[in-house]
Amino acid sequence: MTVWFYVAMICTQDSLEIEDDLVSEIRLTRIQAKVYLLVTCNGKMSFEMIAKHLKISPDEAKETSQNLMAQGAFIDISPTEFEAMHPRFTAVNMYRKMCEQENIEFKRNKIVDNIGAVLEKPYDDARTK
Questions:
Q1: Which helix (H) or strand (E) holds 41?
Q2: 34 and 44 Cβ atoms separated by less than 8 Å
Q3: What is the largest CA-CA distance in the chain?
């Protein structure tokens, strides 16, 4: 499996837009967006596997995954494995947390709603292999 695998799961143009939306609307870092998409679209992964697929250090993969867990995007399956929560709920919850942290009024965001909608099928497909 390669870095572009998660891209193929969503479709090339949508994945880049989703990554950009995660960065602009939810204010994830670029690497957080990549890790989130990788695990969401491929299923549970160890931080070593995340590091290998994204060509980052295992420490960066672990730290990023733990940060996503703190934001409500991931749960830890074991001390080394992470799984994504359902994207329909995760996108809105991450957005809500960002609004609280930034002191921004939380209100419906169609771009954030679209993130969850687009990722729902790849998320479900990855878990019903």
A1: helix 30-42
A2: no
A3: 41
- CB 129, CB 45: distance < 8 Å: no
Task: Look up residue 108 and give its DSSP letter.
Answer: -
Which two structure tokens, joined as six digits, stand for 85? 């929560």
pTM of the model: 0.88
Tokens representing 104? 């921004």
6: its two tokens: 């998660």
C-alpha angle 88/27/82, rounded to 5°? 55
Residue 16: its pLDDT value, please? 80
What does the pLDDT average to over 19-28? 96
Residue 9: its pLDDT value, please?
47
34: Cβ contacts below 8 Å, ≥ 6 apart: 6, 19, 54
40's tokens: 């969401």
d(CA 18, CA 30): 11
- 3 DSSP assignment: T
Instruction: Go through the domains of the chain in sequence order and give each one's CATH number.
Output: 9-124 (1.10.10.10)
Helix (H, G, I), strand (E, B) or coil at 76: strand
